[in-house]
């Protein structure tokens, strides 16, 4: 480790990212404290006194940089991010591209959509960011990765932790860079607006292979072994997470 300063810096930086995940400290407070600490560290560094303390302060600065990096990734959004339109008093018409195949869960499926635009109060707005759309009635058309879709509903924030120590669905989605749910209106149909978007390798090879594997598992296995095999072989965790209600 003595001859690997870059590795040491990376590990200290990672400590800051992990700490930010568990410590609920506002970003402005961290920023102001980091500025003061950096100024004090530079003062000690250029005076060439208290070398051991200076090294400790530099390490602490790296921790704070990691802390701020986590919050920057998590909470600093572009002006047209979909999170800016949460809890509107009227439904919106949302258009976007499926970033994966529908996630099958008992009684519903979930669509992960990279948003492109929304219509609110007769205004067409360009938006970005991912949205989860729970669908409780099976669509009349097959949906796959790369499909362009259109749906009408209300944008909402995912529910957080319901019970102390329980699963926090909101944080689970945030780690996947998803901060919004579209609750579609009763009777609303998912409309296909286009096909063959996204990465051609994923669309033509990866996802068809994945669908074949899931169909094979469904035909040949029964009981609790089915969702376990789907999770292990193709990463399909929808059934295992079926006890999570949003």
Largest sheet: 5 strands, mixed, barrel
Q: What's the SSE pattern?
A: HHHEEEEEEHEEHH
Share in β-strands? 15-25%
**Roughly what percent helix?**
40-55%
Helical run tally: 6
Q: Spatial order of the strands in the main sheet? A: 1-3-5-7-6
Would you count the extended β strands for me?
Answer: 8
**Measured distance between first and last alpha carbons:** 46 Å
Task: Please give the oligomerization state of what you see.
Answer: single chain
Helix and strand composition category = alpha+beta
Describe the global form: globular
Word description of this protein:
By secondary structure, this protein is of the alpha+beta class. 41% of the residues lie in helices and 22% in strands. The chain has six helices and eight strands, in the order H-H-H-E-E-E-E-E-E-H-E-E-H-H. The chain has helices at residues 5-22, 27-47, 51-75, 169-174, 200-220, 225-234, and strands at 92-98, 103-105, 108-120, 123-126, 130-135, 148-156, 178-184, 191-194. It has a five-stranded mixed barrel. A hairpin with a 2-residue loop joins strand 2 (103-105) and strand 3 (108-120). The model has no long low-confidence stretch (mean pLDDT 79).
Defining key terms:
single chain; 246 residues; alpha+beta; 6 helices; 22% strand; globular
Summarize it:
The protein is α+β, with helices and mostly antiparallel strands and 246 residues long.
How are the secondary structure elements laid out?
Elements: H1 5-22, H2 27-47, H3 51-75, E1 92-98, E2 103-105, E3 108-120, E4 123-126, E5 130-135, E6 148-156, H4 169-174, E7 178-184, E8 191-194, H5 200-220, H6 225-234
Parallel strand pairs: 5-7
Antiparallel strand pairs: 1-3, 1-6, 2-3, 3-4, 3-5, 6-7, 6-8
């Amino acid at each position: 480790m003595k001859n690997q300063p870059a590795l040491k810096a990376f590990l200290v930086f990672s400590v800051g990212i992990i700490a930010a995940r568990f410590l609920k400290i506002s970003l402005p407070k961290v920023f102001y404290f980091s500025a003061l600490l950096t100024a004090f560290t530079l003062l000690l560094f250029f005076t060439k006194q208290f070398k051991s303390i200076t090294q400790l302060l530099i390490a602490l600065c790296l921790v704070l940089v990691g802390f701020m990096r986590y919050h920057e990734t998590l909470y600093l959004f572009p002006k047209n991010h979909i999170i800016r339109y949460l809890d509107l008093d009227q439904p919106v018409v949302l258009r976007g591209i499926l970033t994966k195949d529908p996630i099958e869960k008992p009684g519903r499926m979930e669509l992960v959509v990279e948003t492109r635009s929304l219509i609110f109060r007769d205004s067409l707005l360009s938006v970005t960011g991912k949205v989860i759309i729970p669908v409780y009635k099976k669509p009349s058309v097959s949906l796959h990765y790369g499909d362009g879709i259109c749906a009408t509903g209300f944008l909402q924030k995912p529910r957080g932790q319901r019970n102390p120590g329980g699963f926090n669905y909101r944080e689970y989605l945030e780690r996947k860079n998803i901060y919004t749910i579209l609750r579609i209106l009763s009777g609303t149909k998912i409309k296909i607006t286009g096909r063959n978007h996204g990465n051609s390798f994923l669309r033509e090879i990866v996802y068809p292979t994945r669908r074949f594997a899931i169909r094979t598992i469904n035909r040949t296995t029964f009981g609790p072994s089915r969702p376990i095999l789907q999770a292990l072989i193709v990463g399909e965790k929808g059934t295992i997470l079926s006890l999570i209600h949003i």
